[in-house]
Amino acid sequence: MEKDLYMTISSKTKQLLVKQEGFDADFKMTVKGIQATDLVAFANSENGGTILAGVGEVEDKNSMQKGRIIGCPVGDKERLFILSKAESCVPPVEVAIIIENYARKPIYRIEIPSGKEKPYCTAGGTYKIRGDGRTNTLLPGRLLTLYIEKQSETFFNRFREATKELGKDILASDTLLQNALNELRRKVLQIESAIGSNQNSLEKIEAIDKKIDKLLSLQAKGE
User: Fold this and answer.
1) Same domain (yes/no): 178, 96
2) Exposure on the CB side of residue 14, measured as CA atoms within 13 A
3) Residue 1 domain-assigned?
4) CA atoms within 13 A on the CB side of 163
5) Is the peptide bond before 91 cis (omega within 30 degrees of 0)?
6) Whole-prediction pTM value?
7) Do residues 51 and 13 lie in contact, with contact meaning Cβ atoms separated by under 8 Å?
8) Among 36, 54, 164, 171, whose CB has the most other CB atoms within 10 angstroms?
9) Which of 101, 119, 137 is the last residue before a domain boundary?
10) Distance between CA 127 and CA 134 in Å, rounded?
11) How many angstroms separate the most distant Cα atoms in the chain?
């Protein structure tokens, strides 16, 4: 388990400071610069990412941007600010908060892993994903893909649980399976309502809905 206080700078932070902001890193001059949109963007990304607070940007001799430590206040107030931003996301975003360079100019390294409950949004319903050095809006097509990936995983997990008990209790298994299918349909209808008239997305939803109908029909016949 990684420790949460470094008197100097960790090797990971050194690697991030020598390059510009990208898919995996974001620099903030102060803790107050961290927004919920930054957290959901990394949580929605495939590999997550790192925010360094107390770090500005400077150009090197090749006119390339890189990080420069300026330091920032560290304490309970700052930590609670970061945690409140993470907890305000829907669902809450997991973060690891590490203090570095404590003996000189303290900075925060905030690690945001790729989330297990994608897609994430802010309390105001804003969906973001990390791009190359910036936070991008999560467009309907990509949002739909993330949502279906998550719901498909949930459905098949429930399906496996239902079929485990098939030999022991057929009736109970049928009930679990039907509940799982009905829940998946409900989620799909929610996506349809949220996305509106995006034709490509609606066609994908209709295809999934037909598959659910077929599964429900087979399940009702006991096949």
Assistant:
1) no
2) 6
3) no
4) 9
5) yes
6) 0.69
7) no
8) 54
9) 137
10) 14
11) 72
